[in-house]
Amino acid sequence: MIYESAYAKINLFLDVVAKRPDGYHDLHSCMQTVGLCDTISAEITEGGEKTEILLTCSDTALSCDEKNLAYRAADLYLRTVGIDGVRVKMHIDKRIPLSAGLGGGSADAAAVLRLMNRHFKNKLTHDELCELGAKLGADVPFCITGGTCRCEGVGEILTPVETRPDYTVLIAKAGGGVSTPEAFARLDELHGNYAAYTPRDPSRIYAALACGNVQALASCAYNSFEDVILPIHPDAAKIKSFLTAGGAVTALMSGSGPSVFGIFVSDVRAECCAAALRKQGIFAAVCRTVG
Ligand code: C5P
Questions:
Q1: Whose C-alpha in 91, 141, 160, 188 is 20 to 30 A from the C-alpha of 53?
Q2: 110, 98 in Cβ contact below 8 A?
Q3: What are the structural domains of the chain?
Q4: Nearest residue CA, atom 14 of ligand 1?
């Protein structure tokens, strides 16, 4: 049995800047890996007659067939490297909330690609694995790479970013999920063809990260999805205010939401906020950023 952790991501900065002819959007994002993770376990047996992929998941709300990105990742990897007659038995122990803007599905797919590549003695380079990941989803290349990255294009153009070692993050999610295509459609309604849209300057976030000044993130963390998602997810807006009042340096929605993260310099304050949220039946996890 082999194992791989599938880490969630948060967006310290996310600005959607243009709609492309293919329907996707150009964005500028600063993505950060966090310690909240799913675990993938797999048994890979070679030498069979035909390839067989069997997937189970601790969360019964998730489909375990081709609709699951982790299943598609295993299938795509084997077809790409041209290996047949393999039995892949995988299980996902799910801890990242679904449809939450935390990249859970992409994280699982990325972990499966890393795990398969490790098993097959790194047949693909890191860049080749990222190219494969981009076919599965815009966030998959970042989830393969991890750490802190400046992400451009649809999210697949990655530049690693220098940061301070790590800091504490509280991630919370209440209520139902958000459909990512719907969130983008709401932004399109707001910005039309983006011709009159002035992108935000992201340079201050990288300066704050480079000098290790977590407090400075407060004035430059940004997510353009907040304008269209917080009004229809009042629970997320309440969590944001609650985290700020509870001592977070800053609190921001992650991705297309509705999960919200708070950055803390005090672990005690983060744990207190998490305990109070859990008492209200809200998902709350305290973790560290992962380099
Ligand atoms: O790539 P992924 O499957 O994760 O994206 C989900 C959906 O989000 C896409 O089908 C697309 O509608 C939207 N999207 C987008 N621009 C991006 C990333 C995603 O429009 N840069």
A1: 141
A2: no
A3: 2-160 (3.30.230.10), 168-288 (3.30.70.890)
A4: 24
